[in-house]
Amino acid sequence: MIGYYVHHVGQGHLRRLVAVAAHLRTPVTGLSSLPAPPGWSGEWVLLPRDDEPAPAADADVTAHGRLHWAPLGHPGLRARMATMAAWVERTAPALVVADVSVEVALLARLLGARVALMAMAGDRDDAPHRLAQDVAAGLVAPWPALAASADWPQRWHDKTSYVGAFSRFDDRPVTDHTGGAQGRRVLVLWGSGGDDVTDAERAAAREATPGWRWTYRLGGSEPDDVWGDLLAADVVVVHGGSNAVAEVAAARRPAVVVAQARPFDEQVARARAVDAAGIARGLDRWPPAQDWPGLLDDALRRGGAGWLRWSPGDGAQRAATALESLAGAP
Asked: Which residues pair with 29 in a beta bridge?
């Protein structure tokens, strides 16, 4: 049995589980405060929330900087961890995957379970991340080795499987893009985990590019709608989240990756990596309106073929293989 913890912010972690689980031969149980995804056939353990009710403003939620989220005296946290511990005791899992939580990884390891982490981009040199990545039996990085962090100690690289990016669209055929009769098209693919770009900034970008038609897709859109818009776009403007970038990569579309503010500069790291590799334009933040004509033209010149180096098409299968290897390790 493999237990797979899914963080409840956004939809990316859940989509990643669904993609990987499709290739797992070992039974997998989902552990999350999110409901089971549609069509889920395995066990699903619904965890109490550890952020409801919200802790007091002066509450110690980090255990003096040694953890990320462990609000002192919180009944939801207590029930959450007790539920997870009871599941581990009942099933004796071969592996617990944390995607993503330092506290879940540590709890599972303290209960004697082998732990794997879905690695996260960005600056992970803080004390909680160092502890979790040190105690993990292995890490699975949903990006290629070309984007491996130079700041990681060698002991982390040695136990990391760089499987490449993967998404819910990896099994879909990519059709040739023929362009539109009404001008070039920009698709803005944005997420549900928080937005630090204003409507005014988006409107200014549109006004600065009169030869382009702009379409917006936000988190929660139907998959077929997103995929159709991806294939129809001349350029995709996408936030720097792991799954959103992987979806653009699956469609092999020219892109501008714009990082949003996230803890540990995760999206900044990803945007810089694709830019440095020459795969797509990558920006640390939403640029001024006057920059957009040049950015879109540059994305077109780069094209979308370079995404093959970021997303090989079988990343989810590689991730499943890595996890099953860890589950069967002595």
From this structure: 3
- Which residues sit opposite 118 in a β-bridge? 140
Q: What is the pLDDT of residue 9?
A: 86
Domains 2-166+314-327 and 184-309 alike in fold: yes
The torsion region of residue 320 among left (phi > 0), alpha (psi -120 to 50) and beta comes to alpha
Burial 67-92 (b: 16+ CB within 10 A, else e): bbbbbeebebbeebbeebeebbeebe
Task: Report the chain (330 residues): mean pLDDT per 10 consecutive residues.
Answer: 94 92 97 96 97 93 97 96 98 97 98 97 94 98 95 96 96 75 85 77 96 87 90 96 95 97 93 97 97 97 97 97 91
Domain 2-166+314-327 matching CATH 3.40.50.2000: the answer reads yes
Amino acid at residue number 233:
A
Give me the residues paired with residue 281 across strands.
Answer: 256
- For 240-269, give the DSSP string: S-HHHHHHHHHHT--EEEEPPP-GGGHHHH
- Any idea which fold 184-309 has? Rossmann fold (3.40.50)
Q: Where are the domains of the chain?
A: 2-166+314-327, 184-309
Report the predicted TM-score, pTM, of the whole model to 2 decimal places.
Answer: 0.92
